[in-house]
């Protein structure tokens, strides 16, 4: 069971959380201005990287807050978690290598 | 619930005190005003502050659960209306939504560890800490008041389940 | 019955405590501390089972959890029987009942052994090539026979009366394995004050030291040193010690699952103690001290009872005081064979021969054996084993200079020991995603780079010699403690006597004389996989070890290839002509050893499988004789039968009562969310399809919530209590999902909005009072509140009190009659319900349940989310296009509603369905077609979503979703059933009071 660091509560067992899919996908400011293909892209297309993913988690059975995480999908290592609303942080090659190990 | 008093050598489970409950949500200024109105300092995240007849539990960055005894509860709506006039906030009474359980005794932490993945070792979950967590398949809030004393808050319809699971755990931890 | 093979004064069993048990109905005597295997071996019994496919007689190969053959069923009766336990692990207790498996009528004579005669037709993968002709034989002939023959043990047929415990734990250092490496690691860590947990799967700590009579540590024998270490650990408050406890799953982020067995060694049957406990331990650091397993060797007849591992014979002798045979042949690839020989000689066994496969073995132990008269044949192999139900002898043959095997000699024996070398146990390391590497010196895969905060110590990473093992364990234990924040010294121990470790071994099939076309040389004992099966797989084109494994099923039995994987790999690599490192290894999967279902279930059984959520009115309804149904986790009254009514009769009566007088219904389970803040209306506008800005305070609106894909997700009446406060209701099952969805948008898209959400589902009991008499019943109770139609029209809400209790009163109706929903705090719910009930008696107030509620709303054409909708239905499809705020610039789902596919006239739309025959009630889910005579496959135009008999109308009604339904009103479509075709007319979905006169009463 993963150990996930909620930015507000600290490290907690995975069972307290709900995964929220890919992060940093902002809802278009004016959806009616998008064509059908652009809208479908927003609605359905998500990355499935073999490697680092920026994804959302909700501490559903804890403080209830959403936050973001950088996780390597091959190893399930979390590089870091960061508050909702923060941009995806740059990480060093060393951090990426450690997550991929 | 009032009569389910389980004493299993080192583990005690009784219904908790009758309290008035309010969920406060809002930003910093509103939170300060709401806490001040009942005499509590603003608690840090997952911490608890108390004043005469009032307990404030900071369960989220923008959320405080107030547990009030009758004397404070009576006038609190007016107090908050005054303190929070013109300040965006949410106050919702949830007195009936949940019930309290008092869990105490030298084996209290061990029993809670059968339902919740939190680490209850004295250094890891210090008295004065409160958090929502899982109690097996139910949601619950755990407030550690002392090393051997916990106040649990559980939604009303989940109380029978949580009580039964705590009793099973208390039985099991004897072996 | 005498224990002819028991050596008094030897072993650790307690000979002052005899134990009587039965095996296959026969009574045997053993001692406390015996396993079932050791106790039966003490009587000279090796035959303990029959193999899976060929039903060959089998006996134990090992003395531990790696046992593939001696699988037994323990426990009497249909509830307490546990199949497929390893006799080498079952601890006997007084009265234990065990049976052998997979044999009929008995072990000694098994009809299934006829399979052995057909073995040539039953190689690996034979079922891919057979049972195909004739085709119709599969259902009637082949499958039943296969089902009957399949499997090993017999499953229990009654519920398990035992209870099982669960707990989480946390520690600084978890040590898995209590042999010399684990003990030294645990002690080093424990002395620093770190929180330490040490577990071992057997009944005692000590591991290999308990079978080792030569070791001397600080002047103490192995067992005495173990005793002193355990005593020190037991006295430390920061240490938890658990025997009979297997670490079986290494989960991510250092969470390790432990299976602790509490009572099976004491009794079989419920006693009030939990039988087992599942631990989920989060450790800061893990030390794996899981040891190494000796390898068997692959030669013809290596599965006969009496052929076992050399270390097993040593363990049975030194730990259990049992001699496994009197005339012993040892086939050796490793020097440890000679120590075993010396131990056996000590108690009077005779070593008939030692066949060392190595050309030039040497060493002090070998010479000692020779000095004692033991014949040692170098460069020798076992060509075959003689005997069926017990070894009677072997043919030993020389490996000639060219590599061929020459003519052999016969040697009589009742025990053949295999010393094939050692395989480090890397199962838990692999589960942790650690990378394995092949170590040439050790001749095996060992842990390489760790993926978690974990260290391997001792034999499990190729350290075999005792002094090195103790140093290794101590260093790792101290390092682990230090990494977890507790520094301390590394303890050292002086080793005065030990055997020299030897890394020799053999992997693969022993060379033999002649082509191996028919020899039964077993690689995987439990799945009856032979060397020729592996070669067959390679010949048939399987190159990857993963394919070889699955095609032959080697390594796939309950022992997961503990004894077979390396030999299979050796045979495959030889056949493929590729070195072992290039062939690869299969994945190690949890559990390390089988775990009972009960252990995983814990207390999540029966009434505690899920929380059983009940409202405040539940016991009142129960007392009235209500029949209940499950809705999400809630129990809801479905109907209230009177005087022996069935559901149909009760529902008819209840419906008529609501329409003619009044009904009372518990609506407390519906979700409620309080949306509060200056931006509450803005937020509601963005979330729901409706327009909220102009909804006045004290008014209600039917809210429809879509997901961004434009499809209906939930619905409910929303009341505006103040400018900045909405009381939002949801469906019972949708409450949590709706709140989650709202929080998602609020926290991640619109965090600047000043609005907050609070679940109030359990704050309010909701008493629905519906029917022409509703107002009359309610008015006297609401403390003077004016609830007339002028002041409180349909779809409004007011705050007040009822009998002094705070109340939110909604004038809403899901029934289509004059209706109210009385919301009071749940603490008062029961009291107010009973007060309303009492007040209603004079007016004929009738309780009704969810079934009646469904019928009444269907008569009005009101949808139920999840019944008329299925996640692909738009508001317009459901006839609720009117609810969409046309002037709103944006709301969740709006853009999708503009997609061409969601505007197509062919879409499934809500219609009413009236059967030509008015008493005919359609089946929900039934399909509709245009032409009943259409050729199959028919084009399905839609289906029935809700169907009832309407007492109000005196005939059946139904709702359905039909392609282009609204344009088809007036048409007749057909419902093809198995035995008839039902014509139905498509009509408006409102069957009753379309003008809403009753509603606005």
TrEMBL record, chain A:
UniProt-recorded Gene Ontology molecular function terms: sarcosine oxidase activity
Pfam families according to UniProt: SoxD
InterPro entries: SoxD (IPR006279), SoxD_sf (IPR038561)
Any one biological process term the GO annotation gives: tetrahydrofolate metabolic process
Name the record gives this protein: Sarcosine oxidase subunit delta
Species of the source: Acetobacter peroxydans
Gene: soxD2
Automatic annotation (TrEMBL), chain B:
InterPro entries in UniProt: SoxG (IPR007375), TrmE/GcvT-like (IPR027266)
Transmembrane residue ranges: none
Listed Pfam families: SoxG
Domain of life: Bacteria
The protein, known as: Sarcosine oxidase subunit gamma
From TrEMBL, chain C:
A molecular function (GO) term: sarcosine oxidase activity
Keyword Oxidoreductase: yes
Segments forming domain Aminomethyltransferase C-terminal: 909-993
Protein name: Sarcosine oxidase subunit alpha
Family membership: Belongs to the GcvT family.
Record's keyword annotation contains Transmembrane: no
Stretches assigned to the FAD/NAD(P)-binding domain: 172-433
Residue span(s) of domain GCVT N-terminal: 619-888
